[in-house]
Design brief:
mainly beta, DUF1618 domain-containing protein, four-stranded antiparallel sheet
């Protein structure tokens, strides 16, 4: 494990941030929106799991689950240790899939944990692959996976003529989706450009089981490198691989007013999809709506939380928006985060019904940890399905599938011979 000097480079704000009151005790829901930063707080319920780390200290992890658009969250605690001594910063959520969550804990060193949800949840300490001697410097965050082509021989630092180095295709992955549990077929997704699809447990030397699938041509973007969750999401919803894009643009109604603060930020949402069982099909544009088409009426829950126009009507067009997030039950429902100002410590989560062009609900989100930006804040997860006894029985019946998920979590890079044939525009 990599040694960390935890208190030299962090502040203590994470020790004073209090978790929301919702989600404790947890509710049962088919899916949730999960905050990717844990709170440091002593919360205990039926989801609580503990483990003793290699330094002899115990850590406690608890899920506080609430229905979307409320954001569920994790509370971390050390029962026998001062949190100011134990936690150098708040624990972070990496990969989330089915009944597994990858957590990174910063203490006297970095501890990587896997939380396994069931009627008797558990934690497992895993080896930390991020060594200072790791030659791969591409892994900038714990939710990224890097895929590299096969190197036939080690390249010298000054070997400018090494063709294998020049042909390297760097595929930075922001999301990993399991397309088929039985094969197992996994998509390593770069939401700006496309995804590499392969059988992660196939040890054969032939590359026939791997392929590349670009994003819809309308949103393929070779230049962008910032976090795609600001404006995009991709998920499997009801058997379809589905993509959403949020697009913002200024829409000033009064050209005579030079005050930029009066400009409205109009927006639109567009979704594309294809069946998971027929990935060779073309992307299909499903829905597209503009902010001017979205109705806000008396049936919109908590519409009073929205900013008001001069005429007193609630609006979304004076908000700065980001993070479109699919409902995992209905691809017509998309959640969007909004702030009046990026420095706000409170944000709104808007529930947009694209099919009926209406705003269903508005809720509050504690955004004090993403002040002055719209950094990666939350993700969707089905882990809330696995805390019941019935779900635990089902999980035991698919034990082989769990090993697939573990393999996905442990991958830090994948060697593939076929990547030399990928398009140069990657």
């Amino acid at each position: 494990m990599a040694t960390v000097f935890p208190y030299r480079w962090t502040k203590t704000k994470h020790l004073t941030e209090r978790p929301p009151t919702h989600g404790h005790p947890p509710d049962a829901h088919p899916w949730i929106v999960l905050d990717v930063c844990a709170y440091i707080a002593d919360r205990r319920n039926s989801t609580t799991a503990t483990i003793v780390l290699s330094n002899g200290r115990k850590i406690q992890i608890t899920f506080c689950i609430a229905p979307p658009p409320l954001v569920s969250y994790i509370c971390a605690w050390s029962p026998a240790t001062d949190p100011a001594v134990f936690f150098a910063k708040e624990p972070a959520v990496g990969f989330v899939n089915d009944n597994l969550v990858f957590l990174r804990v910063h203490s006297d060193q970095i501890y990587d944990l896997i939380y396994h949800a069931s009627s008797r949840p558990s934690l497992k300490l895993i080896h930390n692959p991020y060594s200072p001697y790791n030659p791969y410097d591409y892994l900038r965050r714990i939710d990224n996976v890097v895929i590299l082509p096969d190197r036939r021989h080690a390249a010298g630092v000054d070997d400018d003529d090494n063709n294998s180095d020049k042909d390297i295709v760097l595929h930075l992955t922001e999301k990993v989706l399991i397309l088929d549990d039985e094969q197992p077929l996994v998509a390593f997704v770069d939401p700006w450009r496309g995804m590499v699809i392969c059988n992660v447990l196939d040890n054969s030397s032939t590359p026939g089981g791997s392929s590349y699938m670009p994003m819809p041509s309308e949103i393929f973007n070779i230049h962008n490198t910032y976090t795609s969750s600001i404006s995009r999401d991709i998920a499997i919803v009801n058997g379809r691989l589905t993509v959403v894009r949020l697009c913002l643009y200024l829409d000033s109604d009064d050209d005579s007013d030079d005050d930029d603060d009066d400009d409205c930020c109009a927006w639109d949402l567009t979704t594309w999809s294809k069946p998971v069982t027929c990935l060779d099909d073309e992307w299909r544009e499903d829905l597209k709506i503009k902010s001017s088409d979205v109705s806000i009426d008396d049936s919109t829950r908590n519409a009073c939380l929205l900013p008001k126009l001069d005429d007193g009507c609630p609006t979304t067009e004076t908000l700065q928006l980001a993070h479109p997030t699919f409902s995992l039950m209905d691809a017509h429902i998309v959640y969007i985060m909004g702030k009046v100002d990026v420095s706000d410590e409170k944000a709104l989560v808007l529930t947009v019904d694209m099919a009926n062009k209406r705003l269903q609900e508005v809720s509050m989100y504690d955004a004090e940890r993403i002040v002055n930006d719209f950094d990666y804040a939350y993700t969707h997860s089905t882990i809330s399905q696995y805390f019941t006894t019935a779900a635990a029985v089902l999980a035991r019946q698919v034990e082989a599938v769990i090993s697939v998920n573990l393999a996905k979590l442990f991958i830090t890079h994948l060697i593939m011979e076929a990547f030399g044939e990928l398009p140069n525009k990657l």
